[in-house]
Amino acid sequence: MIKLLTFGIAVYLMVYIGYGWKFWNRFGWTTYDKTLSNQVKLTLLWPVLFFVNKRFRRNFQRAMKRHYW
C-alpha cells in the first residue's frame, strides 16, 4: 500500500511540474497580464484553477497547444 501511495504521489508531482513548466514557458500565449507575479501565482495554482475557472482552462489549453515554430 505504501509503494502504491508513493508511486501515485510521484506521478502527480511529475504531471504537476511538467505542465507547470510548460505553462510557465508558454505564458506569453495567454491573455493574462505578462507580469512576474501573475506568472508565478497562476503557474503554482494551475491544477486548482484548471478545474474551477473556465477562463483559466481556456488560457491553459491555449498555452499547451501553441508551438514556437
Give a quick rundown of the structure.
The chain is mainly α and 69 residues long.
Give the number of helices.
Answer: 4
Q: What is the oligomer described by this structure?
A: single chain
N- and C-termini, Cα separation: 45 Å
Order of helices and strands: HHHH
User: Tell me about the biggest sheet?
Assistant: none
Q: Output the radius of gyration.
A: 14 Å
Strand content: under 5%
* Strand runs, count: 0
The percent range for helix content is over 70%
What is the element layout, followed by pairings?
Blueprint: H1 2-25, H2 36-44, H3 46-52, H4 54-65
Overview of this protein structure:
The chain is mainly alpha-helical and 69 residues long. It contains four helices and no strands. The protein has helices at residues 2-25, 36-44, 46-52, 54-65. Helix 1 (2-25) packs antiparallel against helix 2 (36-44) and helix 3 (46-52) crosses helix 4. The longest helix is centred in the first third of the chain and has 24 residues, at 2-25. It starts with a helix and ends with a helix.
Structural features:
69 residues, mainly alpha, elongated
